[in-house]
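[DERIVE STRUCTURE TOKENS]
===
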Amino acid sequence: MFDMFKYDSPLMQFLSKVADLLWLNILFILCSIPIITIGASTTAMYYVSLKLIKDSEGNITSQFFRSFRQNFKQTTLIWSGMLGLIGLLVADIYIFVKADGEYQLIFKMILLIMGLLFIMIAFHIFPLLSKFENDTKNALKNAVVIALTNIPKTALMIVFTLAPVFYIINHLKLVPLLFLLGFSLPAFVNSIWLNKIYKKIEESYGFVKVQEEN
């Protein structure tokens, strides 16, 4: 019976992983509060979660802030551009919803496609930067290619991440769950799928890896 409480027992390993995800969730929230730093925080969160699925040893806090600092400039630039695009898309949607005309449906379809493509890219760009060294242009290009060539996995990532958020928002008593595992758990599960994608990329294309922490 007491074997289950040994450090290397499945139970203790599970509890250790949950504790890591709880702390990772806190780090992500704290570092995302300025809003402009969400890109760097997301990249850092995926840097850690991709290590966690491989059971890589290391301090969660130091790993998180290592990636945060290393990728801050590039990810903040990308995130700032994304915020601008979100503003434009929201404004365009508002205009075309209010407008009348024979081409309204066509414009709505174009906006829908653009919105879906934007979301797909957003779900890949930051994990990609947490794993590989890419300049911004190539990172965006690679994010598009990965998203479009892995549509089923991308769709699962989007649903698994956003569905719980919308459910919790509609049931406000569950909001504390977001502060426990609302961000790190989806990132961890997404990292399982992403790791398989990245493994194929490394074997096929030989992307340069981000330097591993010693």
Remarks:
- DSSP finds eight helices and no strands in the chain.
